[in-house]
C-alpha cells in the first residue's frame, strides 16, 4: 500500500471552520484521497466556463462535470452532474446548465465552481464507504454500487480498520460475489486492488475520528484496477463520549467476587412474604449458599433467623456483593454506604430508572458507583444465579441443576423463559444472569469471566443492544477459540431511516451491521429464543467436527429428503460417498434400500441394520458427522433404537473416536423419551422435526470454523 500522508489530511480537516459545514468539497476530498492512496480520476476546479474548457482539453475528452458546493451533498439531485461531455462547446453548455440547476435547487448555496474530471474506465460498479455506528464505532462497508445501491442493498460490514483478510472476506460476502469473479466470459476484477482500497478507506476513517462518513460510489472495479468516480466525506466535529473502561485484570477480579462470593449483604431484606427482599433472602438461605448472608433492614433485628443490621456499614467484614431490594429512590444513598464499606459489587434489582425515563436517577447511581469503584449489575433485573456456588440471588424461582451452560438476558421475562427451558430439558447451567439496564456491567464483562470460568462450556446471551460493541467483539474474540458464544439479538428493524448523509450511512441499518460484525467476532447468532436455548443446550454435548463430510443414515426416505434440505440450508456439506464406502453400506441394507447419501436403510429393518450402518459411519475416518433419521416401527421400537445408538457412540468414544451425531425421530409419543435418553448420552436428538437437529449441528460447525478448528 502507498504511504499515507496524515499531515495532508490533518491540514484539510483543520481548515474546515469549527462548527461550520459538515461536508467536504470535492477538491478537499481529492486531497484526502490522494493522501491515502485512494485511486481517483484526474480533476481540477473551474470557476468559469473558459477555465472548464481549458481543463477539459488538458485532462482529455470526454470528461465529467460536477458542481462544487459545500452546501450541496447530493449533486445528482441538484442536477449538478454531466457525464461524457465530449467537446469544448459541450463543456461550456454543461458548465452553464450545472450552475443554473444548482442555484435553482438551493438558492442560498455557496457555489465554488465546477469540477472537471477524467472519465473513469468502465468496470463493475461497487461501493466502498465507512460510517460511525453508535454501537461499534467506525465500520467499513462494501457492496454493489451505482444508482441502485439502496434498492439492492447488497452490502457487508466490518470493523474499521479492516485487515487485508477482512477486506478479502468482504468481497466474498455479498450476494453478487460471483460477478466480481467474472461471469459470462467477463474478466474478474482485480481483487488485490479492491481489497487494498477497502483497507485504505477503513484506515482513513479510523485515523481521523471527526470523519463521520466516507462514501465512494461508484467505484469502478475491473481487471486493470479500481477507481473511485466520486468521493464524499462528511464530518462530525463532536467527539463521541467514551464510557469508563476496565482492564481484563480488573474485570476478572470484580467478576470473581460477584460470581464466587464468600459473603453477601441483602439491602432491604424482609420477613414479610411477598416482598422482594424476603424472596431474595429465602432463595439464598434455602439454596444452600455456604457463605455468609447478612440481611440489612433498619426496622428489623432478625430476618429468617439471621441477625439483621441497621446499615450495611454495620455488617461485619467486607462482603463481596450487596443485593439491593429497596425502592429506586433510596438506592443512591444506600450505594454511597456500600462504596464507603468497600463492597465491590452491587446487584440492583429495583426498577424505576432509565427504563421508565428516570435517566437522571440512573446517572446518579452510576456516578456514585464510579466514585467508589463499585461495579453495578442492573438495575431493573431479576438478580442472578451462580449454581456452582449454590447462589440464588434472585426473587424468582430457584434453580440448582449444575452444568456447563452460562445464560444471560437483558429482559426479565426472557430470563424466566430461560429458567423454564432449563428445568424442562434438564439443562445444567453454570449461571443465569440478568443485565437489565446495563448501567455498568454488560455482556463484555460477563464474556470475559465466562471465557475463563472452568465450569462454563458454552455462553448464550439474549441482548437488545450493546453499550460498547468493540469491547464485546474483543471479549468474544478472546472467548470463541475456547468455547462457543451464542447470541440472540432482539430487534431486527432497520435504523437506516435516520438522517444519513451518504449511501453508506443509509444502508447501515442496525441489524445489517450487527449481523456482519457478530459473524466477524465468531459468535453464533440464533434466529429466535428457542434456537438460542437449543444451541446452548446442544453445543456442549456435541464433539467438535474434524472435517466437512456429513452423512445421513435414515430409515425413512421422506425424512432423508428433508434432512438433506436442512443440510443445505445450514451451510453443511453432504459427503460424496466414494465407491468402496458405498459398497460397504450396501452390504447392510436391503436391495430396495438406497446407498449414496442419504443412506436409506428402509423402515422395516431390524435393530442390527441401524447398528451396522451407524458403526460404519463412526468407523470410517472420511466421515466427519452423522445425521440419523429414525422411523418408529414395531420392528425397531424407539427405545431400542436409542439404546443401541447410545451404546455404539459410547463404545467409539471409549476408543477415542468422537464425531458429532444428531438424530431426528419420527413416531408416536414414545420417541420423546427416546430423544431424552439419547441427549443425556451425547447424541443430540429431537422428536417430530428434521430441521432442529441439523440446525444445532450447523451451529457447532460455525463455532468450529470460528475457533479455527476447521479450515
Q: Return the domain count.
A: 5
Shape: flat
Query: How much helix, percentage-wise, in residues?
Result: 25-40%
Instruction: Name the average pLDDT.
Output: 93
Structural class from helices and strands? alpha/beta
Q: What distance lies between the first and last C-alpha atoms, to the nearest angstrom?
A: 28 Å
Largest sheet: 7 strands, mixed
Strand residues, percent? 15-25%
Can you count the helices? 24
Number of distinct beta strands: 30
CATH fold name of the largest domain = Rossmann fold
The CATH architecture term of the largest domain is: 3-Layer(aba) Sandwich
The neighbouring-strand order within the major sheet is 19-18-21-20-22-23-24
Set out the fold topology.
Layout: H1 6-15, H2 26-35, E1 43-46, H3 49-59, E2 63-68, E3 81-85, H4 88-105, E4 113-118, E5 124-133, E6 137-144, H5 149-152, E7 155-159, H6 164-171, H7 177-181, H8 191-207, E8 211-222, E9 225-228, E10 231-235, H9 248-259, E11 263-267, H10 276-286, E12 292-296, E13 302-303, E14 306-307, E15 321-324, H11 331-341, E16 345-348, H12 359-372, E17 375-377, E18 383-386, E19 391-394, E20 402-409, H13 412-425, E21 429-434, H14 443-452, E22 458-463, H15 469-479, E23 485-489, H16 503-507, H17 510-521, E24 524-525, H18 529-538, E25 549-554, H19 557-569, E26 573-574, H20 579-586, E27 599-600, H21 607-619, E28 625-631, H22 638-654, E29 661-666, H23 670-679, E30 684-687, H24 691-706
Parallel strand pairs: 11-12, 11-15, 15-16, 16-17, 20-21, 20-22, 22-23, 23-24, 25-26, 25-27, 25-28, 28-29, 29-30
Antiparallel strand pairs: 1-4, 2-3, 2-4, 5-6, 5-8, 6-7, 8-9, 8-10, 13-14, 18-19, 18-21
Helix pairs in contact: 1-2, 3-4, 6-8, 9-14, 11-12, 14-15, 15-17, 18-24, 19-24, 21-22, 22-23
